[in-house]
Amino acid sequence: MSMRKGRNVKLREFSLWAYKLELNDSRAFTLENRCVCAHFERHFKSLEVDNIYRVVIKLGEPDQRDGTTEESSSVLKFYSNFDFDHFYKLTGIERKEFLLSTLYTALLKVCELKVWDIEPFKQAYRRVIEDKFDNSYEVSTKNNRARSMAASLNAQHTEEQFNLVIIVKNNDGKVIFERQVLSEEPDEFLFNGQIGNLKWTSNDILTYIAKDKSVIETMNLSPNG
Asked: Measuring CA to CA, how many Å separate 49 from each of 26, 71, 120, 173?
């Protein structure tokens, strides 16, 4: 169902899209930059705007569309030039810094065009830098009934892969159990649907369950387990 014109929706998603590259190269570029964009999204305080829930920055060599926008299906597309030759010469965190700068600079221009509040964008930008581009975060945490152990589901989203690890700590904060339960290429279409939930079925039995409630794994954390 299409949205009514002028309806306020929450802006939440941001993408960098190398639309002029060959398909395989474009997907590789997307996988690499998603950890930066997703990190920015995670720290972005959602902003209510007219009919836009995602901004796509369309990157390419300079052309006459640079600085212009298009809107369709509640997605705003902004054209911006990007120096791919320079980008591919960078290594390590320099690439992430360049990607974040590209995203942020383009979004500030969009804010100016659309008269949006820039503070949520500034805050997200600062937080990514403060995190030193490490997009690691806690998905969820569950205490057992006795509150003697806390289990957490922890994600790490890098330019190379998405990892999900279960960590259990005792009351002293000591890690008593750790297990990786997912390793996938950093494509949210692939890994989002595979992120499950934690459930304690007793003080010593922890289960990791899929979104359809089926049990993926059962872990016995009793001293004699």
From this structure: 29, 13, 13, 42
Helix (H, G, I), strand (E, B) or coil at 128: helix
Say how far apart CA 93 and CA 84 lie, in whole Å: 16
Give the separation between CA 57 and CA 16, rounded to whole angstroms: 5
Spatial distance between the Cα atoms of 51 and 3, rounded to a whole number of angstroms: 7
Helix, strand, or coil here: 7? coil
54 closest CA partner among 70, 43, 65: 70
Pair of tokens at residue 39:
């990190």
Token pair of 33, please?
A: 């930059």
pTM score, whole prediction: 0.91
Instruction: Judge contact between 64 and 81, C-beta under 8 A.
Output: no
pLDDT in tens, 165-222: 999 999 999 999 999 999 999 999 999 999 999 999 999 999 999 999 999 999 999 8
d(CA 192, CA 64): 37
